Amino acid sequence: MQRDGYSAEELFISSQGLAYNDFIILPGYIDFAPDDVNLESNLTRNITLKRPLVASPMDTVTESGMAIALALMGGIGIIHYNNTIEEQAAEVRRVKRFENGFINDPIVLSPDHLIRHVDEIKEKYGFSGIPITVDGKQGSRLVGIVTNRDVDFETDRGRKISEVMSTGLQTAKQGIHLKEANEILKKSKKGKLPIVDDNGNLVSLMCRNDLLKNREYPNASKNSRKQLMVGASLSTQDEAKDRLDELVSAGVDVVIIDSAQGNSIYEIDMIKYIKKKYPDLDVIGGNVVTEEQCERLIKAGADSLRIGMGPGSICTTQTTMAVGRPQATAVFRCARYSRKYNIPVIADGGIANIGHIAKSVAIGASMAMMGSMFAGTQEAPGDYFYEQGVRLKRYRGMASIEAMERGGSKRYFAEDSKIKVAQGVSGAVVDKGSMFDYVPYLIQGLKHSFQDMGVKDIKTLHEMLYNGEMRFEKRSMSAQIEGGVHDMYSYKEPKYM
Length: 497
Description:
Elements: H1 8-12, E1 23-25, E2 41-42, E3 48-49, E4 53-55, H2 64-72, E5 76-79, H3 85-98, E6 102-103, H4 115-125, E7 130-133, E8 142-146, H5 148-151, E9 172-173, H6 178-188, E10 192-196, E11 202-207, H7 208-216, E12 231-234, H8 239-250, E13 254-257, H9 265-277, E14 282-288, H10 291-300, E15 304-307, H11 317-321, H12 327-339, E16 345-348, H13 354-362, E17 367-370, E18 385-387, E19 390-396, H14 401-406, E20 426-430, H15 435-453, H16 458-467, E21 472-474, H17 477-482
Parallel strand pairs: 4-5, 4-17, 5-12, 9-10, 12-13, 13-14, 14-15, 15-16, 16-17
Antiparallel strand pairs: 1-21, 2-3, 6-11, 7-8, 10-11, 18-19, 19-20
Helix pairs in contact: 2-3, 3-8, 10-12, 13-15
């Protein structure tokens, strides 16, 4: 029997570039449940993650909060470089310290602070168990702790914390091992365990919630030292060399050369520099969209490639610069070429839903990198605001004027330009809630997609892609309309589209 549909080779070898919506994957045979699907995949040739999800190095997407959340759930976050060297290294350290079970930079108040200050911290960060020191600073003498049970029924939010805080605390001495601290928390049945030095000064804090997280996230991305994994971005500028040293000192697991057009002598030299100075540190090169670009970065020593030039929701590069490539074609062609050298590729941009994640992996990507999909979550940088009654968060392209003024122009070789040409915009995205609710939804949807394709894991999917067993078909505009919601008077959208 002649096979239905087309192979990926037949689909993408044409004069017309394709986006994710321009094709569909034909269904396979189902003989397994969604929970039987294994989504483990390679970020680089040396780093494997349980989930194929990467948070983009954008200043409205990935700082330590995002990186911690995504690493706990099996992916990885890449800390942006629109900050000082010290600030970026500090974000990396926050991620690395989190896995130790101890919060080494806890929020601290003084006895003279008011209950309303506790309310403000709870509103912004979502917790209210706060250690109290004599001067409200870490490193000074611990005198108490304030929790929900201390303030929940207080009607006067202007009362001093000294009047309501708990004293006579259960503490542990600096240098205690994680296992011992865990036992103290279990026996004391307290939510927080302050760690103090010999003089009673606050050193760090341990939370019962961290114990639960260690138990509830078996797919967490961890290195050999059992720390959460985190990446960071670098430019091709000279300052990146000093930044690199600080990031390595902070414990970064992988670095990305964050350049809009990665096929340059500047990036090639930077990759060679990094691999010579830190041969054990994996480097992700990019961004690229052609086989020729891939060849140069692989020869320079890249351990993975980031694919995409202009497909992001806030990116205008293809329109403004007239250079780039439709994303699906770029991913397939680059993945097929890089596979010869055992180099995985990351599909970066153009992903707006679960189906796009599934398609990116089905045409050769090992990971999907997302910006807008993760922007708007609680863990993304920035504060919420309301516009016409809708709760939003800021989201901007790294080539928007606002981002370039903060340092994003390093990505576009425009740092010293007197006239900056925007290749992106600033905007807002709808509140998506917490990553701890959102990512499990994405993962479960992805597993159902794999079931419909009749494939249990990414390795098998890629084998079927290249031997022609995976079948595809182009979609006309009418087919795209037909495949979405249509002919309805009204309908209620699900929480996550």
